[in-house]
Specification:
Blueprint: H1 2-11, E1 19-23, H2 40-46, H3 50-58, H4 63-68, H5 70-76, H6 86-94, H7 96-119, E2 122-126, E3 140-144, H8 155-166, E4 173-178, H9 182-185, H10 187-194, E5 201-205, H11 212-256, H12 259-267, H13 277-294, H14 299-306, H15 322-332, E6 333-334, E7 362-365, E8 372-375, H16 379-382, E9 396-406, E10 417-424, E11 427-433, E12 439-442, H17 446-452, E13 461-463, H18 465-479, H19 488-495
Parallel strand pairs: 1-2, 1-3, 3-4, 4-5
Antiparallel strand pairs: 6-13, 7-8, 7-13, 8-9, 9-11, 9-12, 10-11
Helix pairs in contact: 1-11, 3-6, 6-7, 7-11, 8-10, 11-13, 11-14
C-alpha cells in the first residue's frame, strides 16, 4: 500500500480543481422513506435497543434525539469516519434492505470524503432530484449509472448527463461511475445517448475508489485529461469533417475511372502472378481514402495532439473499449475476406479449382475460438494464376498455431509472440503464438487439413503485411537460432539466456 501511494503521489502534481459535483442516490441522507414500508415498524423498534442506542450515542445522538428524529438516527449509522457497529449488524435481522442501504451510503460518503481530500477543493453531494442550476461551475461531475435501487437501466443517468452537458462551460468533464463492472462495457453507448463529447467523458468503477491513493491517482489522471480535452475535441471534430469530405472525394474519384483505367490497374497489379483485381483495387482505394482523410487539413490538429503526453495510464486494470479494440483490429487485420476457396479466376471443374488460394497472414479460427492458425509462407511462394504460373501442389505451406485468449488473461509461459487486438462481437482477444507448434502442409492438401483440424473456413481475417512479416521473421529467427546440444531438461535454461556460446 505504501508503494502504491508513493507511486500515486509521484506520478504528477496534485490535481487542481475548484469544485467537484457528485450525483448519486446514495449521497442523499438515508430516510425511512427508502425503508420498505412493511419493515419500517421493525426498524423503528430496533432503534430502541440498548446496544443500538449505545452505538448511536457514540455518533452523537442520545436517546431523545433518536426518538425525535429517527431519519437522522439511521443516517448517522452511515458515518464513514466510524466503523459499522452493532446497530448495523442487528439491522440484518429486521431489514436486510436497510442494512444494504446503510452500507451503500456509507461507501459513497467515504468516496466523497476521499475525493474532497484528494482534490483539495469543494465537493458537493447531490441526489438525482436535486437542482442542476449551477452545475456549470464544477470542473468534474460524477454521475452514478443506476440512480436508485429500482433502476433497470441508466436512462435516468443519461437524461441527467444530458442536462449537465447542456449547461456545460469550458473544459468540464463528466465522469460516469458504477459499482457494476458491466457498465464499463456500455460506457460508449451511454456517452452517445447523452451526446457527450468523447474528450469530455470518462468512466471509473466505484471499486477503484475504495482507497485514498486510488482516488488521488484517478483525480490526477482526470486533471491531466482535462488539460488536453480542448485539443482532443478539435482533433475529433476535424476527423469527422475530414472523413466526410474524403468519402465524398473518393466517390468522385471512382466515378472518374473508365474501363481503360481498370485494365491499366490490372496490368500493374501483378496480374501475371495471379493477384486478383478486386483485392488490389480495395487496397488502392483504401489508401486513397486514408490519404485524403488524414494527410491534408487534419495535420494542423494532429500537431496539437502530437504534443500531448499522458504520463501514466490508468492504475486500475481495465480492458480497452470495443471502439479501441475495433481500431486495433482493423489496423492489424484485413477483415471479412470470405471463405477459403480456389483462385477467383479458376473455373469450376478446372484443374486448379481445388487448390486453395491463400496468402501470407491468413488467420483461421475454430468455431469456439479456442485455437487459431496463421499462414506464414511468403506470398511469392503462394502466388499462382490460372494461366502462365500454375500452382505447386506439393509446396509446403508454413503454418503456425496459437491460442486466442482474453486480453485480461496473462499469456502462458511458453508463448513466443502475441498478436493483440482481435475483436469478436464485444470480446477482445489476444492470440498467443508458440513457435514449436509450426508445421508445413502441402498446398494441395491444405483445405482438407484445416477441415480435419476443426478450423472454420467460411471466413477469415488476414494480418496486414507489417504484422505478418514481423511474425514470419520472429519464427524464422527462432528456427535458425544457434543452440548448443543438450537434453530436453537443459534446453529451457539455454533458451532463457540472452546469448548462447558455441561449444
Amino acid at each position: 500500500m505504501t508503494d502504491n501511494l508513493a507511486v500515486a503521489e509521484a506520478a504528477a502534481p496534485a490535481a487542481v480543481f475548484t469544485a467537484i459535483a457528485m450525483i448519486d442516490d446514495d449521497l442523499q441522507p438515508l430516510t425511512f422513506k427508502r425503508v420498505p414500508e412493511d419493515q419500517r415498524a421493525a426498524v423503528m423498534e430496533l432503534l430502541k435497543d440498548a446496544d443500538v442506542l449505545e452505538d448511536l450515542a457514540a455518533r452523537g445522538m442520545n436517546s431523545e434525539a433518536v426518538a425525535a428524529d429517527p431519519d437522522a438516527a439511521i443516517d448517522a449509522l452511515t458515518d464513514p469516519a466510524l466503523e459499522l457497529g452493532l446497530a448495523y449488524a442487528k439491522m440484518r435481522d429486521v431489514s436486510e434492505t436497510t442494512q444494504v442501504l446503510i452500507e451503500r451510503r456509507r461507501t459513497m460518503r467515504q468516496i466523497a470524503s476521499s475525493i474532497r481530500s484528494g482534490g483539495g477543493c469543494e465537493v458537493i453531494e447531490l441526489g438525482p432530484d436535486d437542482s442542476l442550476t449551477d452545475i456549470a461551475r464544477f470542473d468534474l461531475v460524477f454521475i452514478d449509472y443506476y440512480l436508485d435501487e429500482k433502476s433497470a437501466d441508466g436512462s435516468r443517468a443519461e437524461a441527467i448527463a444530458g442536462q449537465v452537458r447542456d449547461r456545460k462551460e469550458g473544459s468540464q468533464q463528466i465522469v460516469l461511475m458504477s459499482t457494476k463492472e458491466g457498465v464499463r462495457a456500455i460506457r460508449a453507448e451511454f456517452r452517445k445517448i447523452a451526446r457527450i463529447e468523447a474528450a469530455s467523458f470518462a468512466f471509473v468503477s466505484k471499486m477503484d475508489l475504495d482507497e485514498d491513493w486510488k482516488v488521488k491517482a484517478h483525480l490526477e489522471m482526470l486533471a491531466r485529461g482535462m488539460q488536453h480535452s480542448g485539443a482532443l475535441g478539435e482533433y475529433i471534430d476535424a476527423v469527422k469533417k475530414g472523413a466526410k469530405a474524403a468519402a465524398k472525394a473518393l466517390a468522385a474519384t471512382v466515378d472518374d475511372l473508365d474501363i481503360g483505367d481498370f485494365a491499366y490497374i490490372q496490368r500493374i497489379a501483378l496480374h501475371a502472378d495471379g493477384h486478383p483485381l478486386g483485392d488490389y483495387l480495395s487496397w488502392l482505394l483504401s489508401s486513397q481514402l486514408t490519404a485524403m482523410a488524414f494527410e491534408t487539413d487534419l495535420r494542423t490538429q494532429q500537431a496539437a495532439v502530437d504534443r500531448m503526453e499522458f504520463a501514466d495510464g490508468p492504475l486500475s486494470p481495465t480492458e480497452p473499449s470495443v471502439a479501441v479494440a475495433a481500431l486495433y483490429h482493423n489496423a492489424l487485420f484485413a477483415r471479412n475476406l470470405g471463405p477459403l476457396g480456389g483462385h477467383p479466376r479458376a473455373e469450376v471443374g478446372s484443374e486448379f479449382a481445388d487448390v486453395p488460394f491463400v496468402q501470407l497472414g491468413d488467420v483461421f479460427l475454430n468455431e469456439d475460438r479456442s485455437r487459431s492458425v496463421v499462414v506464414l509462407s511468403p506470398d511469392c511462394d503462394l502466388a499462382f494464376s490460372t494461366h502462365g504460373r500454375p500452382p505447386e501442389r506439393d509446396l509446403g505451406v508454413i503454418l503456425l498455431f496459437g491460442d486466442p485468449n482474453a486480453v485480461t488473461e496473462p499469456a502462458a509461459k511458453d508463448t513466443d509472440s502475441s498478436t493483440e487486438g482481435l475483436l469478436h462481437g464485444a470480446e477482445v482477444y489476444r492470440i498467443d503464438w508458440r513457435f514449436n507448434t509450426f508445421r508445413t502442409v502441402r498446398l494441395g492438401e491444405l483445405t482438407n487439413f484445416l477441415v480435419e483440424e476443426g478450423f472454420d473456413l467460411t471466413n477469415r481475417d488476414r494480418l496486414r503485411p507489417i504484422y505478418s512479416l514481423k511474425l514470419q521473421q520472429e519464427l524464422s529467427s527462432h528456427l535458425t537460432r544457434v543452440g548448443p546440444p543438450g537434453n530436453a531438461a537443459d534446453r529451457s535454461s539455454y533458451e532463457e539466456q540472452d546469448t548462447v556460446s558455441l561449444p
